[in-house]
Amino acid sequence: MKIVFPLLCLTALIVAPGCSKMVEKATESAIESELSKDGKNSNVDISDGGMNIQIEGADGAMQYAVGESASIPTDFPQDIPVEQSIKINMAHSNQGDGSFVIQGTSPKGFEEVVQFYQSSTVKAGWKEETVTRQGGKMWMTSMSKDERLLNIIIAAGDDGTSITQNTGEK
Question: I need a surface site. Which of 2, 62, 85, 169 has the fewest CB within 10 A?
């Protein structure tokens, strides 16, 4: 999987609004070819609205989606609250290590989103380990439950409230 991040960065540089279908298909093929050298089966789909990558390997399946096609992974843990009005911009899941990342934006205000996560995570059985607050602009917390960690970052922005959640094993 060490090749995936550089390929994603390269893709982000190549894929821009107005990008031709030929460049999209060439980039898809190049990523799939590189992943196959690592013994991984993959399906890469790049379009003007985003990017989807699905990889199958010895360590399990991994999915990565950015843009309009991004959504909460179907196997996202049910005991992790997700603010209902969030528009997902990026989602990642890795069955091999049980990790998940979602990032999105909510039209709700910063304080309302923070209060939602403060109360809903505790109700779901998560224990707050650390919390950092930077005025009314950023709130970060690290929580634990069983053998898992949950990190949440909430930031006030001009276009709504940004929410990033990631979870994985300790």
Answer: 2
The pLDDT score that the predictor gives to residue 58 is 76
The neighbour count for residue 113, using CB atoms within 10 Å, is 24
CA distance 63 to 33: 17
Q: Which domains are present in the chain?
A: 1-57 (no CATH), 70-170 (3.30.160)
Q: How far apart are CA 75 and CA 96, in angstroms?
A: 13
Residues in the chain: 170
Q: CA-CA distance, 151 to 93, in Å (whole number)?
A: 15
Q: Tens of pLDDT along 33-70?
A: 766 676 767 666 767 667 777 777 777 788 888 888 89
Three-state secondary structure of the chain: CCCHHHHHHHHHHHCCCCCCHHHHHHHHHHHHHHHHHCCCEEEEEEECCEEEEEEEECCEEEEEEEECCCCCCCCCCCCCCCCCCCEEEEEEEECCCCEEEEEEEECCCHHHHHHHHHHHHHHCCCEEEEEEEECCCEEEEEEEECCEEEEEEEEEECCEEEEEEEEEEC
